[in-house]
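REQUEST FORM: STRUCTURE PREDICTION
Request ID: SP-0412
Submitted by: Lab K.M.
Chain count: 1
Length (residues): 202
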Amino acid sequence: MFRGVSQTYGEAALQGSVNYQSPVGWFAGGWGSNVQPYPFGVHAAEANLYGGFARALGSEWATRATYTRYLYAWDRRSAPYDYGELSLTLAFEDRFAATVSYQPDSTRYAIPGYVRNCPAAAYELSGRWPLPRNFALTAGVGYYDLTRLYRVSYWSGSTGASYLHGRFEFDVARFFAEPGVRRLFEDASADGSWVATVVYRF
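STATUS: Completed
RESULT:
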């Protein structure tokens, strides 16, 4: 699920990532997943390559600046979809985070058509509230401004719970999205979807 849209039309995904962070705060990494990007439900692979800088603001607050390049391999759609994004995040401990993201060259397929190299923005809040016995409640909400692409903006979000056991994390979440997502991406809307995730950290 990504910003109110199912990247696999509700099917399962296998994902992996590798990260490095220097002692002074620089970090870089990559993330990959199988996807079925809109339209046509074709199978492809998404790779996100990112880098940036994180800095502590005292003992409780931290800030992070990240540049991410979204890349698609084995993508049989007739036009390219790669784009970049700059994000700024302010976080309080490991509990709350606010992120503003800007895509100078956003590229989308949607029902109104294919649009390339138009600016778009995203505004997101996320939270994680620890509970006893390694449980936690999670929630997130975002507002996505696609007015320069399709004259549409929409809200989406999720609520869920997680459990940590050693190197494993088990998550379950329910996603919701405004009707505008379905008008843009049809059955790829995440509204009402439940997702279960198992994560293993090396």
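NOTES: Residues 98 and 140 are 10 Å apart (CA to CA).
Reviewed by: T.R.
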